[in-house]
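LAB NOTEBOOK - FOLDING QUEUE
OPERATOR: T.R.
BATCH SIZE: 2
PURPOSE: Compare the predicted structure-token outputs for two unrelated chains run back to back under identical settings.
PRIORITY: normal
REVIEWER: second-year student, initials M.K.

ITEM 1
FIELD SEQUENCE / FIELD STRUCTURE:
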Amino acid sequence: MKAACGKLNFVRQTASSGTASHFPARKATLANLESRLKFKRSHKEARRSGRHFVENQNQKGDKTMKQNQTKTAAPAVRARAGLEKLVREIAELKLREVALASKQDAEIQQARERYGPELARLEDAIDRKLAEARRFAETHRAIFNGRRSIELASGVAGWRLGQPALRLAAGGTWETAVAALKELPQLARYVRVREDVNRQALLADRQELDAALLERAGLRVEQGEIFFVEPKLDSI
């Protein structure tokens, strides 16, 4: 910047002392240097103002973040009176929750009573027509041409394979089936024997069991505390 200013002063002096024939060229050079100098000054000022803008924005952002953190921070309860206030607020919120849930249940019940009968009639009509279509399809298999389904103008009718299910043969029980599977070498592997820790029994007998003995088995009984607030809704 200083070099440009010095060069500009030199050109000005030369222009003022030069001859008339060289004056237009020197005047053009002077105008060009002045334009370049103004551009550099404006560019430098823009960079300075931009840096200040970013710094100000960062400072504002930090300040806003601190304010938000201050607003969202929960006040610490320092005395029993504060706990009393919190429990009362919980009770009031619980009352509102109960009232809103009751209103919701009432509206759901009203909707069921309003639409339930018509939905039941529609479901019954669909079932009856579906049974009629099935009877026709079972007695007219030829129209399927060996396929499982047939495409019609308003839909597709046919049979789908359901999930396979294992059923007992006539007169059989699961106990007799297990005994029979054990006696058949090809099917014995389909008898499942499951071993598991009886957790319920261990917890029921926890007072009688020695902790060291449980540790030897790789077990321990834990029972933590759960904080609760039981509002007295009648007092609100």
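ITEM 2
FIELD SEQUENCE / FIELD STRUCTURE:
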Amino acid sequence: MNAHSASTTASGPSRRAVATGLAWSVPAVAMVSAAPSFAVSLRKDPGINGWVLNSPTDLGRCRYDLDVNSAPSGWGDTPDGAPWGLYVYDVSEDGSYSNAKLVYWVRGTHTATQNPITWQAAAGHSSLWSGPVLGAPQVKADGFVYTPYTWTYTGIIDPANVASDGRLYLDTFHVKAANFSMSENGRCLPLDIWAYREILVDPDGPTGPQQPETLNFERRWGRSGPYPPSTQGRMAVTPDAEATAELQQGSS
């Protein structure tokens, strides 16, 4: 099923829950120290690295709950063996890291009066993640309209705090959206989301000759699958028994 044919009637399917993890990364700069050897299959993309568990629940009648958690418990290993969480690889001890952002673009038009989505902090969510800020709906790369919700990291991202595994971790991100509608113009839109990450990196700090660069990365997940399908097979899917046949599963 492609993105253009993924809509259903406004009555929606029966209740089911789906859990999905996504991975992201940052390009290499000078290392602080010799980091542990990572799995050969470990992939690094521009932006913030890490695996986050996205758990939507279909409530029926085109309404959903959504849980987004960077520190889930009891889920075992991620597909590439990297830990759960949000972090930066290959950190320079002289570097500067700031302006980290997470943006969740939800399919459809969601405003204060039309299909509003209310996000709440969930267990363990760090107060250093400020937001969300609701943005104006826009057409994304797949040709559909999405509405952005932006969280900004207000904490200090200090290279001196690189963990023993060679990663510089950001605090836990765990938010929930409850009982929101995906019904629009008489159609039930698929719950598709573009998850975008951004961070400003200055590899040699404010006094060095190199210029700071904004590194970003985004990926679509949801009922319509990755986009484009041939290049985004980095999605870990853990379906319940009822939903197995309806999900697309990829590997990292």
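REVIEWER COMMENT (ITEM 2): The mean pLDDT is 79.
FOLLOW-UP: none requested
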